[in-house]
Amino acid sequence: MAARVLARGEGWSVINVMCTSGPGDRSFEEQHRNFSVALVAAGSFQYRSTAGRALLTPGSVMLANAGERFECGHALGAGDRCISFSYTPEYFQQLTGTTRFRAAALPPIRAMSSVLARSCAGLFGQPDALAWEELGVQMAVETARLVHGNALTAETVPSAEARVTRVVRMMEASPAARHSVAALAKEARLS
Questions:
Q1: Most buried among 75, 140, 152, 171, by the most CB within 10 A?
Q2: Strands (E) located in the chain
Q3: What is the model's pLDDT at position 151?
Q4: pLDDT at 120 over 90
Q5: Residue of 187, 103, 189, 84 lying closest to 144 (CA atoms)
Q6: The whole model's pTM is what?
Q7: How far is the C-alpha of 39 from the C-alpha of 114, rounded, in Å?
Q8: 132 CB burial (10 A radius; 0-12, 13-18, 19+)
Q9: Residue 71 has pLDDT above 80, yes or no
Q10: How many angstroms from the chain centroid is the CA of residue 138?
């Protein structure tokens, strides 16, 4: 795994995380030091924490509680890239009034698309620390509002994860192709 700090300030940082783990690599338990809200920009992986488990694909948002244990796995495909917004517990609570996420992740949803687009654009431009801080504040507040305000965080079953991963990988392999709903359903082995 490679991690590069894009920006940091008092109580927060933004990190570009690229993981090359794949199906042959064993997952292991780790511990989050701070709160994190990580946007999945590419790839897919399975995430398990004390808040639940989720399949993370591009556009998904991984949620991490400070001090809690977690495990990431790549049983269904190799590699991923995330833009991780990290917050000290004090700073996160100050921004959101929240002391714990009740879910492991958010699925790709329209409400997060503008923040995801701005964050991904920031990887290739030269945004200043103030722009990243603004994005970080927006990310923390919006994520806490979504997690604690709706039920979009249902867990998926392993067979569904494999289907979704196949479809995501097919789309990533040929991003310019026109993917019909019927072709995607066929790849996922759904009617």
A1: 140
A2: 2-9, 12-19, 30-31, 35-43, 45-49, 52-56, 61-64, 69-73, 80-87, 105-106
A3: 39
A4: no
A5: 103
A6: 0.75
A7: 12
A8: buried
A9: yes
A10: 15
